[in-house]
Design a protein that fits this description.
6 strands; Thiol Ester Dehydrase, Chain A; about 150 residues; about 15% helix; alpha+beta; six-stranded antiparallel sheet
Length: about 150
């Protein structure tokens, strides 16, 4: 999957990231307090996570899917408000890998403000969709998660 070229003045925010996703703020994403509604940060983190899953070939769709990733927990710390128009760059990095799960961190950077506007975390569990239970993380995932993609 092709990723937009990170602007030079933002690259330092993503030096440890495995994947970066970009989102243009839409007018309708603003809330009554005249800034980006909180729920959209979680959606943007999700989009970055899916980019990461695609790059590491964790996503298998349809009937062939046996072991796949499933989100167990997520969080977001809001640092500065974002307003329309703006473009957000969301970086993702794997923090640690355990037997059946791994944790990731997200950095969300405003292109117009040239600063970090939010940080988040996510815990992803390796899940056996056929038997409906946790599973050990496949070795191929571990190898892919340890590689740098950008």
């Amino acid at each position: 999957m092709a990723v937009a070229k990170i602007p030079e003045d933002l690259k330092s925010f993503f030096k440890d990231c495995q994947a970066v996703h970009v989102e243009k703020i839409k007018w309708g994403e603003m809330d009554a307090f005249q800034h980006l509604n909180n729920v959209h940060y979680f959606r943007y983190q999700e989009s970055a996570r899916i980019v990461s899953f695609e790059q590491t070939e964790m996503l298998i769709h349809g009937a062939d899917r046996e072991i796949g990733p499933i989100l167990a927990a997520t969080s977001c710390k809001y640092i500065a408000p974002v307003v329309y128009p703006d473009t957000l760059w969301i970086g993702i990095n794997t923090l640690n890998i355990e037997k059946d799960r791994f944790s990731q961190e997200y950095v969300i950077v405003s292109e117009s403000q040239k600063k970090l506007v939010a940080k988040g975390t996510g815990t992803v569990v390796s899940y056996d969709y056929k038997n409906k239970c946790k599973a050990d993380i496949p070795e191929s995932w571990k190898e892919a998660l340890r590689k740098s993609h950008i």
